[in-house]
């Protein structure tokens, strides 16, 4: 990879403020960790697994899974996000091995992990089939035999029908005080599958508001497409679990490494 990618720039700019995406980041971390932990225990029958979160961001899922007793490693294409994940893990006494890395080129030997996680719609930052296959092949490579893949995305079947152009505003309050309003604008491409996202944060600035805008592009991968890509990458038994099934806020694809 040459130079910093648009995805890395997007999350570098967002790293300091990413917790404000949630109304209550701590509570959301706990809910997400409990939901993913329950899936891992159900699928693998173990209480403590070696987990790689290959799109860890500032540590939302990684730290939560560490709090559940798992051995966690986090990587992300954003150096700033990984640096913050390390700090947040230390603050919560969660042991975390972390590195900046592209999920298409993971810096680990073969068969190192029991579980690989890529949550919160990270994989759809890859905009074509070649890159998605490459990332999934890397995830399979670092998983032990019958290891567990867990990928969560937005519910794109529904979104492709509705073609939303924005998200509702989210009001959050930082622990140190101060309110922030977050929302997104979406512009769909002519191909009907990709969209540009503008992520807005409105932050109080004296008597007025400061506006921060970050931009990224996504591929609205359907569940069928992603399951097929996983099988092409060498996974078996792909299964989509709904939010109602898991308690996680997005649908979760599980599959097993051959």
Automatic annotation (TrEMBL):
Signal peptide: none annotated. The keyword Manganese does not apply. This is Class I SAM-dependent methyltransferase. InterPro entries: Methyltransf_25, SAM-dependent_MTases_sf. Pfam families: Methyltransf_25. GO terms for molecular function: methyltransferase activity. Residues 51-147 form the Methyltransferase domain. It comes from Glycomyces luteolus. One of its GO terms (biological process) is methylation. It comes from the Bacteria. Keywords: Methyltransferase, Transferase. Gene3D superfamilies: Vaccinia Virus protein VP39 (3.40.50.150).
